[in-house]
Structure formats: structure tokens, C-alpha cells
Q: What sequence folds into this?
């Protein structure tokens, strides 16, 4: 039997929104401060997925310079009607304190792999906006309501009609549903089946109490009655289970009439521990009883594997990748922080066969960083890169970084002594914005191009270096705690640093804290899963 293994989208891929167009399935996931915004994944079998679009790829659609960690693009909603794809997304500007700034926008296209429109501003009343297309052709916009009174935050779900000709919301804003006793009601999606409208909700917060609940009504505007079990999907009741934080999701019907739910999960490295890979996307089959959806396994707990759509398996994707930088376009596996990749700081053409990064601001900057990185999608990996870099001051650095946010990272880099006479390999870490420097420094001969490597084994990270083109490696520094690169750790340390919703990335970066122009050349980058 062809089995689908959970999660289906590994590494940081939360808040899935799914649609089917013919025999094609598409899932959109959140990207927060990572640019381009929104990942759109494609599949024919619900098992093997590939990123085929990153639609928010220009500043006119997405300006995130200066947004705090874990803000930016939240909970996109992908929909399709009459030949047009619609994408609703939030670009969260601030979230600490009483007030939240959460503008929501709509872009569209006839070609999901092509160029998407400039955004239509919708509303800033809340976040997690979504679009519903009713059978009569009318379109509606939903969002959770931000209620700042008494620090309440989650104020329930609202709905308003959208006019595609005027490209604006019209008519009265109507209060749809207050949510259930689980609280923290967000992530609304509406779909229609038979005589009922179904309202999907993410509830219980984004941590171990997370859940996907559902309500229904014969009228779009309600009133809505809650599912007999309240939550359809949750792991809150099963502490040792491998798939935790099960919640925020969406439903889809297959061509042959089967139903599936996609939803986010987290995989802790130990029981209710830290989820270093971030929030991922899983899938479960749904059956219907008395016009209510239930998991096919007749529990609320998602399975680790489920029967697939096809009897024969399609060749799975290779988890190991080596990027040679021989093309003019950087692989979509890589994203940048908050800003588009432009030749002013990131070039594949200035030196053929190399990725050139021109040093910008520090790793603590929320504005202009010269950093490109990809998701860490496995608990045991090797990541390595070959670096050519000639620093002349202690303010110039380049190297390999394991990154969570501006306050949490581990960084193996080449820099200089103060006089500019020596090239030095150093390891620094940031833990809640406090920098820790490894005592040991390694001098690198001026004519050597080092290979830098990090080996991740669940919560342990060890850096290595090679001065003979990767033939032999030596360790540098102590074994590091990789679990600080997780939502859970950030929240454990200090509630002031919330929100924390992303996951671990690994990649290449360059800083020139003097003049923002010193460049570093990377010959290749390699990512390997360790079995």
C-alpha cells in the first residue's frame, strides 16, 4: 500500500491552506519575515510536494523592512474561482504590547506559477484573513477580530462581502462566531458541503493545547453550532505522541469524493520538548457522520501515516541537495530576511559559478541583512559551504549560520584581527540577544578557501572546518545547544520576546558593519540528511 508519511511538508511550513483544481493540489503556507512571501506547494497525490511558486516576490506586494521577528506574512488563504487564483495574506507590522498592526491584502493571478497582481488592501481589523466564494458568485472576506480591550486579543470571527469589480470590501461587517471554550480563536476558513456552511477554526493557542475545531450553519451568516466534539483534530490529550501542536488547517475534497484535512503540527525532540524544525504541515483523511466531519481513525489524534490516493508510489524527492550556483536564479529553497534578493547585495552573475553576498547589517538587524538560508527539515543533517573571503577588519564577517531569529543563532564565520593581518575562524552564538563567543580562534592562511560545516543531531550542533577543500575536517568550538533555535525556547525564556512562530534555517551570510559593501563569494552549498 502507498502510505503518506506525516508531516508532508517538513520544516517550517505552518498554517496550510489547501485547494484542488482538477487533479492538481496546492497548499499555501506562512513565511513570516522570510522573503519571498508565501510558499505554494504542488502535488498530484497528496504525498509528494514541491514548491512551485513564491507569489509575493516584489516590494509592491510585500514590504517587511523593519518588521519584528515572527511578524510579516501570517496565515495565507489560497482559493480558486472561475479560472482565477486568489491569495489573501496578512503583513503584520507589530505585535508586542496592547496594539497590533495587521494589514491584510489580496493578490490574484490566472497562472499560479506566473506573476501575481499588485495587492488590494482589505482591512486591518485582525489577521488570518481568508476568502470564501459562494455558489451565487458572491465573495466574502473573513478575519479574526483583534480586540485590544483588557488585553483580550482574540475577539471572534467577522465576515464582510468583497466586490471584485470595485476591488474593495463592501457592506456591513458582521460578527460571525465568538469561538469555543478552547479560546484563542483564529485561522477561519469557510467551505460549503450539501446544506451546510462549515467554519474551520484554529483554537487553543499555537502551543501544546492547539486544536482544529469546526462549526456549521445552514446560513452563511449563522448562527453556527459547534461540532459535538468541539475539536476535530488535536494532540493536547496525548502527551508522549510524536505529532504535537496539531491545529490550524483546512479541508479539501478529492476528485473521487474523499475528504482530507491539512493542518500544522510540531515534532518535539523529547516529550513536550522543543520543536527545532518549527511548525510543519500534516494530513489526515476525513469521513462524514450526520453531516459532521471526523478523522478517519475515529479519534482526534492525527496518524503518523495514512493510506495514499495512489496504489503505486511516485519517486520521492531527494532530501540531499548540493547547490553549485551555476544558474542565474537562486533555488527557491533559499529565502532572505525581510528584503528581496537584488544585485545590490546578492548576485549570481558578478562572478560566474559563485553566490556573491555583499556585506550589510548585523544578524540582529530587522532591516537589511545579506543572508540567504533554507529550512532545516530533518533532525540530523550536515550543512556545508565553500567560502572565499578576504576581511580587512573585525567589522567584516562571512560564513555559515544556523538561524532562528535576530536574537537566536549559531554562527561559524571568517573575520580578521583588528590590524587586518590575520584571517580568523570564530564561532559566536546569540541567546536572547546575549552574544557568546567561543574562546578558540583558528587562523586561516591567506591563500586558503575554507570549507565550513555544521552537523546537527537533534539538540546538538557541532561546527567543523576544512583547509584542504573538504578532504579532512577538524572541529571548532564546543558542542552547541541547537534547541535554542525554536519557538518553545524563545517563549520559555521571556514572554516579552513573543511572538515566536518560525523555525530553524541554515545558510550563508556576510556582514560589513563598517561600509556595507565588502563581498564574500560562496562556491557551493550542500545540505545532507544523516541517517
A:
Amino acid at each position: 500500500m502507498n502510505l503518506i508519511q506525516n508531516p508532508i511538508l517538513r520544516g517550517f511550513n505552518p498554517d496550510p491552506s489547501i485547494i484542488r483544481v482538477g487533479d492538481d493540489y496546492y497548499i499555501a503556507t506562512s513565511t513570516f519575515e522570510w522573503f519571498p512571501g508565501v510558499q505554494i506547494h504542488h502535488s498530484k497525490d497528496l504525498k509528494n510536494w514541491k514548491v512551485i511558486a513564491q507569489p509575493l516576490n516584489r516590494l509592491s506586494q510585500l514590504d517587511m523592512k523593519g518588521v519584528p521577528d515572527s511578524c510579516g506574512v501570517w496565515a495565507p488563504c489560497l482559493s480558486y474561482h472561475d479560472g482565477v487564483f486568489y491569495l489573501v495574506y496578512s503583513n503584520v507590522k507589530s505585535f508586542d504590547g496592547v496594539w497590533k498592526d495587521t494589514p491584510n491584502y489580496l493578490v490574484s493571478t490566472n497562472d499560479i506559477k506566473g506573476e501575481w497582481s499588485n495587492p488590494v488592501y482589505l482591512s486591518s481589523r485582525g489577521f488570518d484573513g481568508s476568502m470564501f466564494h459562494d455558489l451565487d458568485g458572491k465573495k466574502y472576506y473573513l478575519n479574526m477580530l483583534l480586540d485590544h480591550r483588557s488585553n483580550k486579543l482574540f475577539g471572534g470571527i467577522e465576515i464582510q462581502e468583497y466586490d471584485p469589480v470595485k476591488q474593495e470590501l463592501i457592506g456591513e461587517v458582521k460578527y460571525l462566531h465568538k469561538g469555543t471554550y478552547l479560546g484563542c480563536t483564529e485561522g477561519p476558513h469557510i467551505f460549503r458541503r450539501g446544506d451546510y456552511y462549515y467554519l474551520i477554526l484554529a483554537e487553543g493557542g499555537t502551543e501544546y493545547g492547539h486544536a482544529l475545531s469546526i462549526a456549521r450553519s445552514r446560513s452563511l451568516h449563522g448562527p453556527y453550532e459547534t461540532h459535538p466534539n468541539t475539536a476535530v483534530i488535536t494532540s493536547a490529550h496525548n502527551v508522549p505522541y510524536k505529532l504535537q501542536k496539531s491545529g490550524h488547517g483546512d479541508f479539501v475534497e478529492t476528485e473521487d469524493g474523499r475528504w482530507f484535512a491539512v493542518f500544522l503540527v510540531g515534532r518535539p525532540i523529547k516529550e513536550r520538548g522543543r520543536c527545532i524544525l518549527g511548525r510543519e504541515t500534516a494530513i489526515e483523511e476525513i469521513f462524514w457522520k450526520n453531516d459532521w466531519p471526523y478523522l478517519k481513525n475515529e479519534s482526534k489524534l492525527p496518524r503518523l501515516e495514512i493510506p495514499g490516493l495512489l496504489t503505486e508510489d511516485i519517486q520521492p524527492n531527494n532530501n540531499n541537495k548540493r547547490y553549485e550556483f551555476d544558474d542565474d536564479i537562486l533555488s527557491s529553497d533559499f529565502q532572505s530576511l525581510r528584503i528581496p534578493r537584488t544585485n545590490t547585495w546578492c548576485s549570481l552573475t558578478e562572478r560566474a559559478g559563485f553566490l556573491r553576498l555583499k556585506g550589510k547589517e548585523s544578524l540582529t538587524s530587522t532591516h537589511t541583512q545579506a543572508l540567504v538560508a533554507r529550512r532545516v527539515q530533518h533532525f540530523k543533517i550536515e550543512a556545508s559551504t565553500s567560502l572565499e573571503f578576504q576581511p580587512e577588519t573585525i567589522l567584516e564577517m562571512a560564513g555559515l549560520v544556523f538561524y532562528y531569529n535576530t536574537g537566536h543563532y549559531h554562527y561559524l564565520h571568517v573575520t580578521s584581527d583588528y590590524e587586518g593581518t590575520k584571517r580568523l575562524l570564530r564561532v559566536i552564538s546569540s541567546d536572547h540577544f546575549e552574544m557568546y563567543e567561543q574562546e578558540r580562534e583558528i587562523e586561516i592562511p591567506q591563500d586558503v578557501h575554507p570549507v565550513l560545516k555544521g552537523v546537527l543531531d537533534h539538540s546538538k550542533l557541532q561546527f567543523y572546518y576544512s583547509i584542504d577543500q573538504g578532504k579532512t575536517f577538524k572541529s571548532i568550538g564546543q558542542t552547541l545547544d541547537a534547541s535554542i533555535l525554536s519557538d518553545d525556547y524563545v517563549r520559555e525564556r521571556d514572554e516579552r520576546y513573543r511572538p515566536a512562530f518560525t523555525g530553524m534555517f541554515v545558510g550563508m551570510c556576510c556582514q560589513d558593519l563598517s561600509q556595507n559593501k565588502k563581498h564574500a563569494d560562496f562556491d557551493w552549498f550542500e545540505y545532507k540528511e544523516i541517517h
The helical segments are 487-493. The chain has one helix and 39 strands.
